[in-house]
Amino acid sequence: MAPVEQDALAVREQLFHERVRECIICALLFASLYILCHFIITHFKKHTDFTAVHDDEDAAVNRIALGLCTFTLAVALGAVLLLPFSIISNEVLLSFPQNYYIQWLNGSLIHGLWNLVFLFSNMSLVFLMPFAYFFTESEGFAGSKKGIMARVYETSVVLLLLTLLVLGMVWVASAIVGNDAASRQSLYDLWEYYLPYLYSCISLFGVLLLLLCTPFGLSTMFTVTGKLLVKPRLLEDLDEQLSCTRFEEAAVSHRIRSGKASCWLNLDMEMLREQFFAIRSKRRKLELRHRASPWQRNLGYPLAMLGLLALTGISVLIVCFHVLELLLDDAAMPRGIQDASLGQVSFSIFGSFGAALQVVLIFYLMLSSVVGFYSSPLFTRLLPERQDTPLTKIIGNCVSLLVLSSALPVFSRTLGITRFDLLGDFGRFNWLGNFYIVFLYNMGFAGLTTLCLVKRVSWAVQAELIRAFGLHKLPLPVTRCQTRSKPC
Questions:
Q1: Does the pLDDT value for residue 333 go beyond 70?
Q2: Integer Cα distance of 23 and 151 in angstroms
Q3: Using CA atoms, how far apart are residues 38 and 29, in angstroms rounded to an integer?
Q4: Number of neighbouring beta carbons within 10 Å of residue 429
Q5: Residue 156: is it exposed, middle or buried by C-beta count within 10 angstroms (0-12/13-18/19+)?
Q6: Cα–Cα distance measured from residue 434 to residue 431, given in angstroms and rounded to the nearest whole number
Q7: Among 6-10, 40-44, 156-160, 349-353, which stretch is predicted with the lowest mean pLDDT?
Q8: 374 by DSSP, 3-state: which?
Q9: Longest dimension (CA), the chain
Q10: Among 60, 5, 92, 16, which residue's Cα sits nearest to residue 356?
């Protein structure tokens, strides 16, 4: 064999081994995410929906739908980890460029992960989750033999009709808007026109949902932190309050046990019970705060609140700086690249510390968006409950989390949280090149976040000062109308 042929064969073998290695790594990562998501969904699912006591067929259908939900949730978790994993990989390659044990961590692997997440996100949103919902609601065609396959046929027909309806609506709208030859030619290109355009619309909806949920979630996280941690109190005597509460609880309990009304007081037992439960709840909270150590009471809560304030303030400052960059330099616009050149330059001007801060901010914004999503009045009913979440609600949660997580890379790059450009089809969205959309999006995030932050912090400080100085115990003034009628 000639030396040239030997070199070509060696190159082909190397490419083959690299491809096999990437497939194995991707399979192991996704299998780990799938197992983790299986335990999460099992923690929330309603066990009566998956038992074969009533109907073995329904239980089998629910298990199949649950597997599809687990796959979708694993894809959502992979989309959340996609951008942080890419940033960390770049910093690791910069720190250890010649290390033999991390040579598998290359641009080809990262680019493949981005493409797989994009493909699985499309497949889950367009096919798997609608199929899971229609599958659980199907019963088979009338007159056909009952069974799982009958439900599969009915679900496939319904999903096909729905797909034709959606594509027909897009075809008519495209024909009305664009009447040139290029538009008519694109109507017949399903893979290159319809699906990327549809996912672009879904991504835009997800990014707008993140814009609305994240500031609201940041505000909610301050409230949740205040409820979970023990607050330090100014000018407060816990021993005196706890003693008074115990005496009050004992007095109300004695009146309930006696069950006799005084001659001057009409005893309402129901009202007394409600008052007793309220006093007991207050007493338990005071005992919890009394048992807390001085470090936990005076250091834990301030550090947590300062951490939330610091992360929120840094996010707002980064977005404001990115707004100035958008006005001065076109390179600040989010864009997509087809080649992931890792290990050449850091994506932060502060090096590894800046990259770690970017990862923390990405996770923080995703967590705040999820908290804001479930705290909003429109989506409160989707909040899962432990061991009592029906399958339809699990499907709704998986779809919502996938929409939020798949938009997270675009969200982070649009706000300038990271300089890591979007890989693969994530950078093909048409609206990413629109300056006005990107600029208004950054301004909206900075304005809403600042407003929520100032409002929440100012209210908390005001309430704490009023409570510390005892102003909340002062009687409210009673205003009366100037007419001869009753008080207002």
A1: yes
A2: 34
A3: 14
A4: 21
A5: middle
A6: 5
A7: 6-10
A8: helix
A9: 115
A10: 92
CB contact set of 211 (below 8 Å; sequence gap of 6+): 411, 441, 444, 445, 448
Separation CA 315–CA 445 (nearest Å): 10
Q: Give, for 255, the enclosing helix (H) or strand (E).
A: helix 238-258
Q: Which two tokens stand for residue 438?
A: 């990107």
User: Which band of pLDDT confidence, cut at 50, 70 and 90, is reported for residue 217?
Assistant: confident
Residue 352 reports pLDDT greater than 70: yes
d(CA 192, CA 155): 26
Overall pTM > 0.85: no
Of 103-107, 268-272, 427-431, 477-481, the one with minimum mean pLDDT is: 477-481
Nearest to 477, CA basis, from 487, 468, 467: 487
The average pLDDT across 472-478 equals 52
Q: What residues pair up with 45 in beta bridges, in sequence order?
A: 389
CA distance 431 to 364: 25
Residue 68 has what pLDDT? 93
Burial class (CB in 10 A: 0-12, 13-18, 19+), 288: exposed
Nearest to 119 by CA among 29, 64, 199, 32: 199
Q: For residues 319 and 97, which has the higher predicted lDDT (pLDDT)?
A: 319
Closest by Cα among 339, 325, 307, 313 to 416: 325
Instruction: Give per-residue pLDDT as tens, 358-381.
Output: 999 999 999 998 988 888 888 888
Euclidean distance between CA atoms 76 and 72, whole angstroms: 6
Is the distance from CB of 203 to CB of 407 less than 8 angstroms? yes
Which residues are CB-contacts of 295 (< 8 A; sequence separation ≥ 6)? none
Q: Give the ranges where 329-351 is alpha helix by DSSP (H).
A: none
Q: How far apart are CA 90 and CA 203, in angstroms?
A: 26
Buried b (16+ CB within 10 A) or exposed e, 158-193: bbeeeeeeeeeebeeebeeeeeeeeeeeebeeeeeb
> What is the rounded distance in angstroms from the CA atom of residue 402 to the CA atom of residue 408?
10
What's the CA angle centered on 441, arms 438 and 442, to 5 degrees? 90
Looking at residue 487, what is its pLDDT?
A: 44
Coil, strand or helix at 436? helix
Q: Which is more confident, 91 or 331? A: 91
One-letter amino acid for residue 38 of the chain: H
Q: pLDDT digits over 438-461, tens only? A: 889 889 888 888 887 777 766 666
d(CA 90, CA 352): 10
Helix (H) or strand (E) holding 422: strand 422-423
Average pLDDT score over residue span 196-223: 76
Per the listing, tokens 């073995």 go with 56
Q: CA-CA distance, 365 to 214, in Å (whole number)?
A: 6
